[in-house]
Amino acid sequence: MKVNINQDTVHHIRRLDEFFKKNGFKSDAVSSYWKIFGEKSLISFKDDYTQANIFPDGFDDWRKDNLINKIKNIPIKNFIKKRLINQLPETMFNAVKDVAKSQNRVVSFNCIKHALSIHSIERAGVKLNEKKIAVIGDGNGFMGLLIKRLFPDSKIVQINLAKVLMFDLLFTSLSQKKNSSNVVLSSGDYTKDAAFNFIPAELIFDMNIDDIDFFINTASMQEMNINTVNSYFHFIRSQKVSKTFFYCCNRVSKKLPDGSMLVFDKYPWASTDKVIFDDICPWYSEFPVSRPPFIHKFDGDHKHRLIEV
Question: Which fold has domain 2-62+126-308?
């Protein structure tokens, strides 16, 4: 798919691409999972960075909004209608449709799962408006955009491996009417008042950032090295705000390609964490596809937990 890049974003995307070309997937932050699947997500640019050719794969179920894909999406749309929409307020589902439209994509399972996560946080009584919210491992920027659509006074920090972060930045820039994005490759680049800060996961622990109120990770911590998981928890606990929350939704256990195991209950939770909820995630047991049998089960249960650290 070809994507035109607006002039406000050209400089940012060029810097991210140059960073990735220099570093590739050599960082310790890159797990055995992403060393395999990261190569499947393709992105290339015109020499002047005014256009990108993209193939997002391995981290999102994005499909362009066209007639063929609308037809392919019918079984998925039916699954969402029968099993998931009734769990969301109408205003939130409308926001999902608005963000999907801005990204020129059909509404997918991933779009709805982000809304369900936000709704579960809201129902627990935790407010997201006027908060600085870090999304760890978004993928095409949908969660960050949905939060911004629902809570206009929030500020978003997008953290992702540099290659995938380029997708987050591109799709966010397509959806935002004004230049509100900032790419952070050094501590001096971080702009506290920016609507969106985009930070490579390869660099995040060296940035000395300490003003984040809320962290969200959905289905990507299960794909990290355990040392990286430990580093994220340390980073979350090092924030210097009055209250810091963390919403985590990941597989109960998952074996990575190198044989290492990630176990949700063995993440570095602390006895001092205030647990707001901790359950098997009800919408993360199965997912819809376009071909028979139309519904597949995930390889194991997912848990979601909301804590105040």
Answer: Rossmann fold (3.40.50)
